Amino acid sequence: MTLTRYNATAATLTKNRTGGDWCPVSGMCVTCVEGCIGMCEVGKSAYRGHEVIYPQPFGIMTTASQKDYPIDLSHFNIMGTAVGAVGIEADSDIAIFPNVDLETTLGPDKAIKLRLPIVIPGLGSTNVALQNWDGLAIGAALTGTVLTIGENVCGMDVESKIENGRVVYSPELERRVKLFQEWQRDGYGAIVLQANVEDTRLGVQEYGIEKLGVEVVELKWGQGAKDIGGEVKIKSLEKAQLLKKRGYIVLPDPLDPDRIEEFKKGTFTEFERHSRVGMVTEEDFIERVEELRKAGAKYIALKTGAYRPADLARAVKFASLAKVDYLTVDGAGGGTGMSPWRMMNEWGLPGVEMWSLTQQYCERLAKKGEYVPDIILAGGFILEDQMFKGLALGAPYVKAIGMARSPLAAVMVGKTIGKEIEAGQLPVYLERFGRTRESIFVTAEELKREYGKDYDRIPTSAIALYTYYERLAQGLSQFMCGSRKFAIEHITRDDIATLTPEAARVSGIPLVTDLDAEEVDRILG
């Protein structure tokens, strides 16, 4: 069932009056009757208009596509073997899953080191990122992974100082950067500063490089959740007016006297702040990369969204020409803090299709001897089996998997548990594990031993992210051990097989029944 048919969803707090009896073409109730108060998408739009475009409630949730795409990662299975070991001695006492090496690197000089192959793509100016940054930054730093500061953080910071159109001080951006840097261990992981059109105009990345010690910056073409610029909701008239004066698109116009009066009367309660879309050209892209290198950026990345195949080809080619360190490819269907709900479901290249094309495009460049940047795949990954499949699907170019919604979920859960512990009001579901941080979070004692007196400064939200990643690490190690691949670099496309002809056609991965045909003939004679 595709979302096109839906006229109601929990994402927009709507439902059909007739429950499961709705028209499969339009999604409307089979009988639309006079007297209904309008609970469906159409009905709610009749009185709240554009507000119903976006998932709700803003600021305390994330959302992802509800569309059931024809192909997803469940159409692939991971292949194990009973023979040998790659990357370790083929000895039953040595080739065990705790000995799997999950470290990876990004960039041609392998200078960006990760303890786990995980990158959190851009979490920017949405409230849900702002309110959970402590857990994200500390947790990512403790695990030696990458965390990306998304778009519009400086522009949204009411305390930012902007002189001659350039940011010279932003306490919020400084907080985000310094928190990660404080907890970073042994040079593993990285804090990345992303920029969109408005950020570039404000000189956000130059500020981060020169004043905050940021080493990795990322240019942003877009994301999988939408094909327009970033957007948030604003409940303060004064802040909406400030953002309008800073050059953002703000709707309704907070400087219009009539709109100001309507807001004060309660006719509407929030403004929308929108970012502009970029205009990509090869010349401008390469020029911007060179500007950032001259400004002192040590490493440069590019993130592209689920645009049409020609744009994906541009991303791969331009990243090759500019020799950026890595390219993040975000397929449709992933997550966001705010995007138009129908757009999230009905636009762009879905994950498997986009990731498969990315591998094909990289292969074409590699065969010609051209530089191929390291690739990060994103768009709905949450658990270890999906991580393995992504690494295999894009091998040998994919070095890590991008996940934002699930790490944020772990952080929010950890924060909630921390509040419950402090209040002494643990629900039975949690109380069965105990009443303290150390009894509930299975990794807490480990962190306590390692950090000593600093352990008390680690919030439960960060412990939760650390614990979630610990689960991913062990689960991924077990899959890799079963496939006899004992380091990320040894995972190949041959480590997965497709379950449907359509998945095989799109990905180029053989059907499970066609796999190993030559070797089978050799074994059987």
Describe the structure.
There is one protein chain. The chain is an alpha/beta fold. The chain folds into four domains: 1-53, no CATH class; 57-227 and 282-495, Aldolase class I (TIM Barrel, Alpha-Beta Barrel); 231-274, no CATH class; 496-524, no CATH class. Helices cover 39% and strands 14% of the residues. The protein has helices at 41-48, 127-130, 133-143, 153-156, 171-183, 197-202, 204-212, 237-245, 257-265, 282-295, 309-322, 341-346, 351-367, 384-393, 405-423, 428-431, 437-440, 444-451, 460-482, 501-507, 517-524; strands at 63-64, 76-78, 104-106, 112-114, 118-123, 146-149, 161-163, 166-169, 190-195, 216-220, 231-234, 249-251, 271-274, 299-304, 326-330, 335-336, 374-378, 398-402, 496-498. The strands form six sheets. It has an eight-stranded parallel β-barrel, surrounded by seven helices. A three-stranded antiparallel sheet has the order 11-13-12, with helices on one face. β14, α11 (309-322) and β15 form a beta-alpha-beta unit. α3 (133-143) packs parallel to α5 and α3 packs across α19. The longest helix is centred in the C-terminal third of the chain and has 23 residues, at 460-482. The two termini are 46 Å apart. The relative contact order is 0.14.
